[in-house]
Specification:
With 380 residues, this protein is an alpha+beta fold. It folds into 3 domains: 112 residues, Acyl-CoA dehydrogenase/oxidase, N-terminal domain (Butyryl-Coa Dehydrogenase, subunit A, domain 1, Orthogonal Bundle); 108 residues, Butyryl-CoA Dehydrogenase, subunit A, domain 2 (Beta Barrel), CATH 2.40.110.10; 140 residues, Butyryl-CoA Dehydrogenase, subunit A, domain 3, CATH 1.20.140. The chain contains 11 helices and 10 strands. A hairpin with a 2-residue loop joins strand 2 and strand 3. The longest helix has 29 residues. The chain is globular. The two termini are 30 Å apart. It binds flavin-adenine dinucleotide (FAD). It comes from Salinirubellus salinus. GO terms for molecular function: acyl-CoA dehydrogenase activity; flavin adenine dinucleotide binding. Belongs to the acyl-CoA dehydrogenase family. Keywords: FAD, Flavoprotein, Oxidoreductase.
């Protein structure tokens, strides 16, 4: 059975209180205006939650991935893109902590823990989406420096960020995933090519940016030459994606229970109808299944155990729970749910991102199929 520790319960209470007080009341306006939640993220930085899983030696909180799941659920329940911004940033900082040198950790992590230096991930490209082997950005060693050429797209946090963790091919002939090296590149070195207007996740933009002959000193290389993509597969920070799904799915459920208990039609609350109550029960079942799967994947990752099976399940179940619950919430709110007066139309738009980002669910289903055949194969 999975149980949170007392410290994790305290973190959940503090994060929920913060999200309810500081995030949720501003969520509709930030979404409508497509405005970066800089102030909120600054406050998260003051609490060093933006460095939650970094070690205390570098200004972090020394937290686990289960702690990250706890925090991300609460933030996402209030405004999903706040959780995205924090998680993408922390993912970059984690790469610096895990694979950087002592000097690089000293240089970047204390400011990253406080969100004074903001990280963004430059991995995806036009031909490197769900399959990153199509990566075309190159890194060429010239003397003591590297010359970076190419583009990155969907760089969340870029517009308000400071450093992009760029993955580039140092040896395009090497069989992928070899021949990929990572660098921290200041945002000022890029040209912005496209800032997309998106269906959801509107407060935190994810633009397409170019690197044209950008010179990067070797002391900005994070990890070994040629081995950076292989190293990525040992990270488990991706648990933030299902955790974001759990947050939206829960918020959709809570709003639905509150609204249907109040809203009367035909002489009684619509929440008194069996047809509605059964649906609310299904919504709760999705939330709790998704949460347990996500905690289990994070707990296995924290213990250093193989969690490919559990993670794939969590990613698919939690992100689809978010879409289904948001859709149900809209239906059960009726017309008012279709307006921006309520949060539910945003839940649906934000949830829709999660099944296709962080690797589309089809790819995670491929993994799940593979691990299922490994795990359940018995001689009969
Ligand atoms: C708002 C937003 C923010 C993002 N933030 C970042 C970021 O900060 N940094 C970053 O590096 N990337 C980021 N991404 C990129 C994201 O991870 C990619 O969009 C994702 O990996 C999918 O790549 P793609 O969009 O090119 O889709 P494609 O790879 O072109 O896939 C398109 C569709 O094909 C189907 N498909 C793909 N593979 C399979 C398969 N194996 N089997 C069956 N069907 C399949 C799926 O339905 C999939 O949705 C972001 C994306 C978005 C939209």
């Amino acid at each position: 059975m999975f149980e949170l520790t007392d410290d994790q319960r305290a973190l959940r209470e503090a994060a929920r209180e913060f999200a309810e007080r500081e995030v949720r009341p501003r969520a509709i306006d930030l979404d409508r205006q497509g405005q970066y939640p800089a102030e909120i993220l600054g406050e998260l930085g003051d609490r060093r939650w933006t460095g939650l899983t970094l070690s205390e030696a570098y200004g972090g909180k020394g937290g686990s991935l289960v702690d990250l799941v706890v925090l991300v659920e609460e933030l996402s329940a209030a405004l999903m893109p706040v959780a995205s911004a924090l998680a993408l940033h922390l993912g970059v900082a984690t790469v610096v902590e895990r694979f950087g040198t002592g000097e690089q950790r000293e240089r970047w992590l204390p400011e990253m823990a406080r969100f004074e230096t903001v990280g963004a991930l430059g991995l995806s490209e036009e031909h490197a989406g769900s399959d990153k082997s199509g990566m075309e950005t190159t890194a060429t060693k010239v003397g003591d420096e590297w010359l970076l050429d190419g583009h990155k797209r969907w760089v969340t946090n870029y517009l308000d960020g400071d450093e992009v963790l760029v993955y580039a091919r140092d040896d395009p002939e090497a069989p992928f995933p070899d021949g990929v090296t990572a660098f921290l590149v200041p945002t000022a070195e890029f040209d912005v090519e496209e800032v997309w207007d998106t269906m959801g996740a509107r407060p935190v933009k994810s633009p397409k940016v170019r690197l044209d002959g950008v010179r990067v000193a070797d002391d900005r290389r994070i990890g070994p030459v040629g081995g950076a993509y292989r190293q990525r597969s040992t990270l488990s920070t991706g648990v933030n994606v299902p955790a974001r799904g759990v947050g939206i799915a829960r918020a959709a459920l809570e709003d639905t229970v509150a609204y249907t208990a109040e809203r009367e039609q035909g002489g009684s609350a619509i929440g008194d109808r069996q047809g509605v109550r059964w649906r609310a029960g299904e919504m709760a079942m999705r939330v709790e299944t998704a949460r347990l799967l996500t905690f289990r994947a994070a707990a296995l990752a924290d213990r250093g155990e193989d969690h490919r099976h559990e993670f794939a399940m969590a990613k698919v179940a939690a992100t689809e729970a978010a879409v289904e619950n948001a859709n149900e919430a809209m239906q059960l709110h009726g017309g008012i749910g279709y307006t921006t007066e309520k949060h539910v139309e945003r839940y649906l738009r934000d949830a829709r991102l999660l099944t296709l980002a962080g690797g589309p669910n089809e790819g995670h289903r491929d993994t799940l199929g593979e691990t299922t055949f490994e795990r359940y194969r018995r001689e009969r």
